[in-house]
Design goal:
Length: about 475
């Protein structure tokens, strides 16, 4: 396996990023597709596409006030013998031949009402038990210190002193999290019980409170259920097939954008002629070189848990590229990159050239929800690191120090074909789901620094309405 590049991540504020470029945004110079993956919560189809598209359009209009044109496109897709249509928003500039197409990957239907309170209680306590065990072994604390974890669990006495793991905060959080289900259920039951004692209207008020409580608990179960279902690692779990469905849908959505040719009918005719022997290999290769991909640029974006789903689809794409399973791409003779047979687009990262995460819990998932592997199982750890390796800092090679004398490195021929892709992670200090990503390398962490008031402010959804967030995306990905 080729060496993993360990470059220092860049940390900037959104304001600093915007100062470095002109106020006016530029239009794209090639057809561009953006696939947006939604996060947790009560999600409905096309809402995420709507939110993201409106943000881009409003920012484009500041530079091109009279040029913006929109069209609803239907992209035919097939699933087995069935054909269906993907709803796509096309953004056009009246003075350009190039377009921006916005796609949405919707997955909430897979997890809705799948998990119960009992399932969540079991999952939460399993997470707490695993995290507690690895705290006592020093696993998570060592990992956090090594990669400069800037989260709530690491503190420093002075500005210049090194960060240290705060065991008290860690244990306090685990204690609260492990009792979350019981506390919420007990609190709601207690309130409803008290309401019944209200004279005259107690019965009616209690019924209304029960209805409200039931709705609240249902929504809470679905929110936490999204996280628990997608993060199941045991193939024997009843949720494993649901996770697999979500992951397969994501890679299929991404794969479609990368494989889509500019002229599908002509490409199919060339393929048929080659299969039937009408044209030979040389003519076939020349014909492919005369073709082009429909999208010269493909951008993947994920909000909240959607960033994890998007991240996993990148890992799966890398595996498929390694096996030459992506149409019209093949590993080059020096085994350094996957190049296209169509036109002159070259390496895959020339087209699949951007990853956007915002409100992302990827660091927290790495810290708490990754499969906790005992240090003596260094073979399993290496296999998983190879398999899920996109820009991920090693969580296994430090076992060599902890387990000196028994550790043996396992070589792997898997090539990291996508690690040069630009990754920009947007977060805010009052978005407690998100944070700067420390467990991944070559990531630009952008602190949005949303201007909100109140100690209880929660900015997990503020990205959608922030024009500077969208301007930064345009400046860095849509040029």
């Amino acid at each position: 396996m080729d060496a993993i590049k360990q470059k220092v991540n860049c940390l900037i504020t959104l304001g600093e990023s915007l100062k470095a470029v002109p106020n006016a945004v530029r239009w794209v110079t090639k057809n561009t597709a953006i696939l947006i993956v939604h996060g947790i919560g009560d999600q409905v189809p096309l809402a995420t596409l709507d939110d993201f598209s409106r943000g881009l359009i409003q920012e484009y209009k500041t530079t091109f006030p009279d040029r913006m044109l929109l069209s609803h496109e239907l992209m035919p897709k097939s699933s087995g013998i069935d054909k269906w249509f993907d709803n796509v928003l096309r953004i056009k500039n009246s003075e350009s031949d190039f377009v921006v197409d916005i796609y949405e990957y919707y997955w909430a239907n897979y997890t809705e009402d799948k998990a119960s309170w009992t399932d969540l209680d079991k999952w939460i306590n399993g997470v707490v038990k695993g995290a507690s065990n690895f705290y006592h072994q020093g696993e998570n604390s060592d990992l956090g210190i090594r990669y400069g974890d800037d989260s709530f669990f690491f503190t420093k006495k002075t500005k210049d002193s090194p960060r240290k793991f705060n065991a008290f905060r860690y244990k306090l959080f685990l204690g609260f999290f492990g009792r979350l289900v019981m506390m919420v259920s007990f609190l709601i039951s207690g309130i409803i019980s008290l309401i019944t004692y209200i004279p005259f209207i107690g019965g009616l008020a209690s019924s209304l409170a029960k209805s409200f409580g039931s709705t609240f608990l249902h929504d809470l179960v679905n929110v936490i259920g999204d996280i628990s279902i997608y993060n199941v690692v045991d193939p024997k779990s009843k949720f494993y097939c649901v996770r697999k469905q979500i992951a397969e849908g994501a890679i299929n959505a991404l794969r479609y954008l990368i494989e889509k040719p500019a002229d599908t009918k002509l490409l199919n005719k060339i393929e048929e002629d080659f299969q039937e022997g009408i044209i030979d290999q040389d003519d076939y290769d020349k014909a492919l070189l005369s073709m082009e991909h429909y999208y010269g640029s493909v951008i993947l974006a994920g909000h909240s848990l959607g960033s994890q789903i998007a991240y996993d689809s990148i890992n799966k794409l890398n595996l498929l590229l390694n096996e030459n399973e992506i149409a019209h791409y093949q590993i080059n003779s020096t085994r350094t990159e996957a190049t296209s047979k169509l036109g002159n687009s070259g390496s895959i990262v020339n087209r699949f050239n951007g990853f956007i995460t915002f409100g992302s819990p990827l660091d927290k998932i790495m810290f708490f929800l990754r499969e906790q592997i005992p240090k003596e199982q260094f073979i399993k750890q290496q296999i998983l690191t190879h398999y899920h390796g996109f820009k991920q800092r090693p969580v296994g090679d430090y076992f060599q120090c902890l387990n000196e004398g028994t550790y043996v490195k396992a070589e792997c021929g898997l090539i990291r074909l996508l690690d040069d892709m630009k990754w920009r992670n947007y977060y805010d200090k009052k978005d407690y789901v998100s944070g700067g990503l420390d467990y991944y390398h070559e990531v630009t962490n952008v602190d949005c620094n949303f201007q909100v008031t109140g100690k209880t402010a929660f900015t997990h959804s503020n990205y959608w309405a922030d024009r500077y967030f969208f301007r930064d995306i345009i400046n860095n990905f849509l040029t």
